[in-house]
Fold:
Amino acid sequence: MTEFFSAYMPYEAAWLLSTVIGILLIALPLMLAVAMIIYADRKIWAAIALRKGPNVVGPFGLLQSFADGLKVFLQETIVPSAANKGLFLIAPIITFTVALLAWAVVPFDVGVVLSDINVGLLYILAISSLGVYGVVIAGWASNSKYPFFSAMRASAQMISYEVSIGFIIICVVLWAGSFNMSTIVESQKGYYGFLNGHGFNPLLFPIAVMFLISALAETARAPFDLTEAESELVAGYQTEYSSMAFALYWLGEYANVILMCALNALLFWGGYLPPIDWAPLYMVPGIIWLFAKIFFFFFVFSWVKATVPRYRYDQLMRLGWKVFLPVSLLFVFLISGFLMLTRYGGAA
Amino acid sequence: MIQLFAFYLFACVMVAAGALTIFARNPVHSVLWLIVAFFNAAGLMVLVGAEFIAMLLVIVYVGAVAVLFLFVVMMLNIDFAELRAGFVSYLPFGMLIALVLLAEILLGVGIWQAGPVELAGRAAPVPTDMHNIEAIGALLYTRYIFLFEAAGIILLVAMIGAIVLTHRARSGVRGQNIAQQNRRNPKDAVVNVNQPVGQGVEL
Structure:
């Protein structure tokens, strides 16, 4: 796109313009996707519970999210008098911004990526580690006990699961030989000659499952939604929030969920590649394959939310530190050992 | 032009955030300003082409270390009057540190005035055909392998030391046996009784 604009203006202005357009092309559809995915989440949840779900606003209730958005937008923003006002208002903005930032390195098709940096996966890890600040600052700035408890839980939970996510990512990076997202996707071509995706590899499949569960914990989705366990903490860190500030948390959370689904698709299930390495399937644009995979994983997230009861806090910590951490560490050893013996030509 | 703008933006914000870390009255605000400073330092690293170091700075310092700082500082109930009481007694030592830092800054400025660093004069040339992750890996795992592993072992020992120092065996604690909990099934705990109306259940 920079080349297209640089015919009409100096290079730097063209670069700036094309980057801004690229950001808008990702962020605006993402917001629309978040609105529709909230609707899908409620519909799937309702279907599993034998209910109808949202069905009043628009055809099949499709406009429900927009009606909710409008309602929230017209409400009054209430800042508690004991709250730390500046931080109280900055916290939801941090959550929302961080949820959008990570999409800069997600490849949607061959070469369709805003920023094709060679540390793409590390960038995503860095950005997702920032997500905890929105929650912690909200909990502290609200100056209220339940949000504070929730913030403590959230920070412990996110740090715990980031450790195992880090090791899982290292396994994928070892196999792909790169941190660049596009290279990681391309490296998944042609398992056994006809399958696309690291998930089909018996050595990487257990890691793919662990990544899915860690992603649930990292985004604080059910069954790991202890940060907003309504039976104990009212509504967690969002308790004191109202109107747009509340909506920003809502949007940020779902944007993060979509990002985690996209990461599942990109790291383990071939991203924009069709699942079977067969020429006619490449006629379908890569972005449709990616969206289909993202939606499949989102369906799994909703399915889990509707069926599994909430974990107890000590069970959550046990799973993170005593199960996932050693197992993912073991797989780092197994995979690097396997690669050393096969790809890199025997013992050194 | 854009790079220059980004450099001055990151540098100014970083210096300002560093100053506010010291001047902020609330310790939580101090930690948050420190995080802003870390983040802008990462931005500067990206500008000089060290994106791997920049990402590590964000992951390790912003994502883990600063979260722990924030965690601790938020839980503390800090009494400002008590903090200020120690001001005079620590003043000579504080002045000494300030003087040392000032001397270092002056020295740094002096060296900078003396002329640019001759990058070309180093022993090894800058590799141009590899990313800086690969370059760091190639150095760390070959030339500096013993130092690297020694650092790893020191960290491991420090971690074990911290656990040993703080661990104490408490009596009277009922720990959980997870395997036993998972093995339990409803038949062990629940009995269905079809009791006629008006008669109590024998327990």
